[in-house]
Amino acid sequence: MENFTFYSPTLFAFGDREERRVGELTRRFGGTKALLVTGGGSVKRNGAYDAVTASLKEAGIPFAELSGVQANPRSGKVYEGIALCRAEGADFVLALGGGSVIDTAKAIAMGAGYDGDFWDFFTGKASISSVLPVGVVLTIAAAGSEGSDSCVITLEEGNLKWGCPKSDLIRPRFSVLNPRYTCSLPPYQTASGATDMIAHICERYFTNTADVEVTDRLCEALMKTIVSAAPKALENPGDYAARAELMWAGMLAHNNSCGVGRVQDWASHQIEHELSAFYDCAHGAGLAVVMPAWMEYVLPHNVARFAQFAVRVWDCDMDFAHPELTAKEGIARFRAFLKSMGMPATLSEIGAKAEDIPAMTAHRAEKPNGFPFGNFVKINPKDMTAIFHLAE
Ligand code: NZQ
Ligand code: ZN
What is the DSSP code string of 68-91? Predict the structure, then answer.
């Protein structure tokens, strides 16, 4: 195990009706006027908006509003939110929604106190040093931004979907997780969320670091829980118990408690970000296409680790004479699971075209340190191209 620092200062309020505490929590973490950030309207339909605004009013916290954040959030809403924060004198950013809303809130919080362009943090021109406090009321178990130190935004000019450098300063001060609000999720979003969570764990699980048993076991437990709970939530969207398992698993999958002490990979996420930049697909759906293809491509690098994944997560029998067969069976079961949830398996199923593969690979190269990426196996342009072709 490698040395590490783990600092995760977020307060989590988990369970039914916990959103009633939002006003009190906003005040506790220094907010006297909030900017409330929301998406395309789901929170108005499922009652979350009414409950949260009632709590703010009860606590005497005035708020301005920024609505209409779209999935795969764009820079335009960030600029709008920064201007609104300044005009309204908001000293707290409250995200009510999923990863897209939370990431927009985080980017606004970074940019509000900075004289330059918020994108400077993404290019590395400026480093994140002072941010407004961010609070979260989560409505989808997926991206894990409610506990993470990262934020992903698409710069409209150039269509660049990039993550900012990781910083503990952008971890939310509090996150309210009421599984009840995730019951209104359409099946596709539930499945995309479950896929993203498994991907967050796999990005950590597939490591070259030796002797990381405790985090291996945590990763496996989380994956098994998601594999058990997601079909229940899909079968019965109002299954509170299954929604609760998914919601907490999604947080644990990405606040890095299962990633410490090991070198992590993140190649599949980098590849997927080009897919969602080009085709505006759901991030989890893009991962459902990319991740199994990446697994097949890198399998020869460490057959034993893929065999462990197969046996411990997918209940495969170990073939000691032919461990590569066990490893392949694990990937096949992973693929079958994704399919059973209604996730796409090929580029064409998310509307992607093989002729765009060179453009997506070239687009990646525009990013600072664009290639190689990934740590389990270093991915160069020829590897990225080959992985896309495996996903055709
Ligand atoms: O906009 P509304 O109307 O709210 O609808 C949303 C949206 O269409 C809907 N939704 C959310 N909660 C709902 C609901 N519909 C009904 N009932 C509810 N309770 O779901 C759709 C997707 O929402 P979004 O916020 O985009 O989902 P997700 O949480 O998957 O976030 C995806 C974004 O997060 C980024 C992704 O790249 C993508 O841009 N990521 C952020 C990370 C981070 N900051 O740590 C890590 C991840 O790897 C990921 O890259
Ligand atoms: Zn993700």
Answer: -PPSS-BHHHHHHHHHHHHHHT--
